[in-house]
Write a structure and sequence with these properties.
about 150 residues, 6 helices
Length: about 150
Amino acid sequence: MNMIVARESELSKEDIQTLLVVEDDAGIRGILRHVLSLEGYKVDECASAGEAQTYLSRTIPDLILLDLMLQGTDGYAFCREIRAEERTAKIPVIMVSARDEDADIVAGLEVGADDYVIKPFSARILSARVRAVLRRSTVEPGDEGMPD
């Protein structure tokens, strides 16, 4: 625990990255919040795509962890909405789902997810994937003009 406190104290408020967890299961939201908070992230939570849409109208997180099987609008449709909106199109999205068939994973990536994590997940692997996606999405000063 002291290591976590030291890590957080080394960061200014502006350096702390915000993650949005969109998950209808409160227990899983709690696990994700716990794991990611220990990594030093600020974790915001929404229980539905509708709640997340309202959140995104006023806040842009650094990354979204998105469940596929949400009540109402599912994760596939919501990811398409995120990508269609200019304001949110560049937010990295990691889908988190118990659906582990190749077709589900491919569909998630094809609608715009940057990564796909299968439940149940390892906390260490989830954390590493979040770091990797954030690292890939961060543009360093001077890199803006780099060709794709």
